[in-house]
Amino acid sequence: MALSSSDTGAGTGPGTPSAPRPTTRGLLPLLLTGNTALYALYVGVPGMLLALQIEDIDPADKVANFGLVSGVSAVFATVFNPVAGALSDRSGRRNPWILAGGLLAIPVMFLLGSVHTILLVMIAWCLGQAVMNIYQAAITSVVPDRVPPGSRGKASAAVGLGLPIGSVIGALLGAAFSENYRTGYLVLGVIVAAAAVLFTACAREERMPAKAPLPVRTQIAAFGSALKDHDFRWAFIGRALLVLGYFAVAGFQLYILKDHTELPAGLAAEEAVAILMPLNAVAMVVSTVLGGWLSDRYDRRKLFVGTSAALAAAALVVPAVSTGWTAMLVFSVVNGLGFGCYMAVDTALVTMVLPKAEDSARDMGVLNVANAGPQIVAPFVASLIVSASGGYTALFVVAAVLSVLGALAVRPIRTVR
After folding, report:
1. How many whole angstroms separate alpha carbon 137 and alpha carbon 154?
2. Which stretches of the chain drop beneath a pLDDT of 70?
3. What's the chain's Rg over C-alpha atoms?
4. In a domain, 24, yes or no
5. pTM above 0.85, yes or no
6. Is 187 inside any structural domain?
7. What is d(CA 157, CA 165) in angstroms, rounded to the nearest whole number?
């Protein structure tokens, strides 16, 4: 989940060959559709189908196994995102990578639904992460490529809206196919493939100047070069901290509802997910739209990013002090308000601190390590905290502290208000 040195934006920094082209007509709805499909799969698979599949295979060790599968597969996400970004930079194209990643989702999801051991589930989901990050790296780079700085709040809001809408679709499909993994996985794969075909057919792109091949050692070194930039580094740190706190809890939502929350009589955990997700989505939609629009209007990115991260931290305290169903409902709404605004405005902020416009996909791929990297650590950290404390209360507290640190991390950024 991701994302110049001044408010003029990445596209007008030193050494930039040309300013960003005006927003492609109809691009924002296509960005919304493409990202909705992405998050539908990201929520429906690990948030529901994968968790149920692992529980069915080995109920006694479900927490440890889920943490292992999620952590190892996230390594692939970390590796493939910046690599795919750099390849699309070098080719001068985004659409072919979006199309390839989307179409490959179908056979990979079919494979994932066909396996019956923890090892094979892990291998298949690693392939899934690799394919989806090829798709994600390319579609994430469309905003800095094609949207001028003054409209990036709106464009980032369109991208950000994909999370709540996709989350609802993923949760509902996951619940609907909870007894039939193969069909559920395949449906989610088809959705991503269809979105990729639609995007690449309708969002025509101009070929950018292709880059000459670089030695492998030089390419590897280049991945870390963006982190030498002061503002980019702090944006990276802030994103990593908040995402770590978020996924430490979100990845275990189904198990939290089963083992921590006191659900009303007759309400199954899978049904509870299908209730919480729409509430969370509505809150995210409201805060994503308002956050993106207000941050454009007032030209204040840091204020909105820091405040929304603090709000997400406050939300995590609620289920820490109460195991009731009402507490989870409140958490879902408040967390949606905070996280939705954060992702919309922080993505806009990130596009304004990219060191070089000509390396935008590569550098946003590097920043996406701040999304994927914490997902490597989060399952292991979460499972250790749950095992050591004997419950999920301590997990909520740790996640809240990480969110507060993420809010504070944007303060040192100098070139964006």
Report:
1. 20
2. 1-25, 207-224, 356-362, 365, 372, 375-376, 417
3. 20
4. yes
5. no
6. yes
7. 12
